[in-house]
Amino acid sequence: MDDVAAPRRASFGLSLLVALGWYTTVLAAVFVGHAGIPATPNRDCAAVFSCMTPQEELGLLVILGGPILAGLLFSTLVVTGLLARRVPSSILTGTLSALGSVVVVAVAGAVWQGLR
Amino acid sequence: MRRAGLGVLFVAWLYGVPFLLIVGLIRRTSSPYLATRSAAQAFGATTDTLLTTALVLNLALPVTGVLLARLVRHRYWTRHFGWSLVGTVLIYVAVSIAQSAATAPLIGWTPDDQEPAPRVTQCIPTSGGRGCPGG
C-alpha cells in the first residue's frame, strides 16, 4: 500500500516548502553558531551597534536584510516554477531552487554594486 | 506510517547535517573569549562533537534510509535515499576543501585562552647547583 508510484512532476507547494526549509535551517544554524561563542568582556560599547545581543542582531538583519530576503523569495518562486515542471522530485527541486535563488540574488547584488 | 518514518529520516539528514556542520564550522572559525584553559578545552570539545556527529550522521542516515526503504519496498524513498548518497559525497568533498584551507586540523583543535602563564614565585635551591638570593 505504501508503494506509491512516484509522481513524474514535483509538487510546486512541496518544493517551495523544501526551499523555505533550507533558508530557515541556514539562518537558524548561523544564529545558533554565533550565540554559542563567548564574547570578550570589557568591550568598548560607546559606538552604536558595537555591542549587540544575538536578538538585536537578528532584528537588525530582518530590517536590513528585508529587501534581500524579499528578492530571495521572489526568485525562489520563479526558479521553483521553472524547475518543478522538469525535475521529478520535490526535494531536489526545492534544494536546487534554494541554491539557484542564492546565486541569482548574489549576481543581482554584484551587478547592482557594479552599476552604482 | 512507514512513509512518515522514512520522511523524517530523510529530513533529518537533509537539514540536520548541514545545520550541525554550519554551527560547528562557525565555532571552529571563531575566536572566542575563554578565560581559562579548561574553558577553552571544553569549547573545543563541543565543537569537535558537533562536527564529528555531522560527519557520522552524513553517512549513517542515508545508508540506514536505503536499507529501511528497501526492506519495506518503498520505491519513492529507496530512490531518494539512493540519490542522497550523492549529497553525502558532496558534503564530504566540501568539508575536505574546508579542511585543506585550514592551517590547524578541523577536528581536535583547541582555541586560545586568556589564562596568564604561571609565574615562578618560589626558589628551590639545588645542592651543588643554583643558590637562591638571600639564602
From TrEMBL, chain A:
<feature type="transmembrane region" description="Helical">
    <location>
        <begin position="12"/>
        <end position="32"/>
    </location>
</feature>
<protein>
    <recommendedName>
        <fullName>Vitamin K epoxide reductase domain-containing protein</fullName>
    </recommendedName>
</protein>
<keyword id="KW-0472">Membrane</keyword>
<feature type="transmembrane region" description="Helical">
    <location>
        <begin position="91"/>
        <end position="112"/>
    </location>
</feature>
<keyword id="KW-1133">Transmembrane helix</keyword>
<keyword id="KW-0812">Transmembrane</keyword>
<feature type="transmembrane region" description="Helical">
    <location>
        <begin position="58"/>
        <end position="84"/>
    </location>
</feature>
TrEMBL record, chain B:
<feature type="transmembrane region" description="Helical">
    <location>
        <begin position="81"/>
        <end position="102"/>
    </location>
</feature>
<keyword id="KW-0472">Membrane</keyword>
<keyword id="KW-1133">Transmembrane helix</keyword>
<feature type="region of interest" description="Disordered">
    <location>
        <begin position="109"/>
        <end position="135"/>
    </location>
</feature>
<feature type="transmembrane region" description="Helical">
    <location>
        <begin position="7"/>
        <end position="26"/>
    </location>
</feature>
<protein>
    <recommendedName>
        <fullName>Integral membrane protein</fullName>
    </recommendedName>
</protein>
<keyword id="KW-0812">Transmembrane</keyword>
<feature type="transmembrane region" description="Helical">
    <location>
        <begin position="50"/>
        <end position="69"/>
    </location>
</feature>
